[in-house]
User: What shape does this take?
Amino acid sequence: QKEVEQDPGPLSVPEGAIVSLNCTYSNSAFQYFMWYRQYSRKGPELLMYTYSSGNKEDGRFTAQVDKSSKYISLFIRDSQPSDSATYLCAMMGGNEKLTFGTGTRLTIIP
Amino acid sequence: GAVVSQHPSWVICKSGTSVKIECRSLDFQATTMFWYRQFPKQSLMLMATSNEGSKATYEQGVEKDKFLINHASLTLSTLTVTSAHPEDSSFYICSASGHYGDTQYFGPGTRLTVL
Assistant: This one.
């Protein structure tokens, strides 16, 4: 079993829809949770970072962490074509190393 | 804030030559930097962890004599691919650890093509 599981997609939704991206994990040592966005042929860009259970909102993005269920989510409201990218969940314990999900490729259809 | 740059963004070289890739944290100091490689449609694979002023720690299966890492200052780490071969062609990405060591900021990546 992988430490982090992420639905690889691909996922296609119409512009303006709400997008839900999800990851589950098995390692209880993970303390920090991140979502990165990666455009083709570019490095990952940090979108959201959180370390506690609950919701964190930043503009159209909401990150949700449920440590009891070992489940994290990223919601994108009012999705735009520019949101089309691969989204990576990532987690970190105490050793500064990131463990990534496999990434979900998202396409927003105009 | 938290900007990481890489140079070059794209390099083509002949088989057998060496290539150096630079990774810089532009607006913060990074005691720890990381080097990843990524193949098409795959996730990032950690190659090594680089700490300023000390030897890099390589992941299992990564040849330390082939992928030389130097972290000479708090804002610069370099990766040198020695005697490059076509199978080394890949997308190389560096990252720098945040101030509290609880996240990583990534560079834009370097695409290496070995002919």
